[in-house]
Design a protein that fits this description.
With 103 residues, the chain is mostly helical. The protein is 64% helix and 4% strand.
């Protein structure tokens, strides 16, 4: 009888150690809070969007395809980037024309 009780105590101790170790390694099992309405997990850099950044974009899937607000956000960001680049090209062309005229 005492042998069975000893095995039972050892098993409970081993189970407690395994549980403690697992809870320290893997956390307590909480889930992350949901994203606030209008937020998106889609990421792009703040400036200087490259083709690799664009290829890495992934959109959240919803019932009828991609989430429209995320796609709209990416298109707006790319449109702003293109507008900025075109303005910079026009500025550089104007500087080049002024330098050519001065010579």
């Amino acid at each position: 009888m005492t042998t069975a009780l000893f095995y039972l105590v050892v098993m409970v101790f081993v189970a407690a150690v395994v549980f403690l170790l697992a809870s320290v390694l893997f956390g307590r099992g909480e889930e992350l809070p949901p994203l606030p309405p209008g937020a998106s997990p889609t990421r792009l850099p703040a400036e200087d969007i490259s083709s690799d950044d664009l290829r890495a974009v992934r959109f959240q899937m919803v019932l009828r395809g991609y989430k429209m607000s995320e796609v709209d956000w990416v298109l707006r960001r790319l449109g702003d980037e293109i507008d900025g680049l075109r303005a910079r090209v026009a500025e550089l062309e104007e500087q080049h024309d002024e330098q050519a005229a001065a010579q």
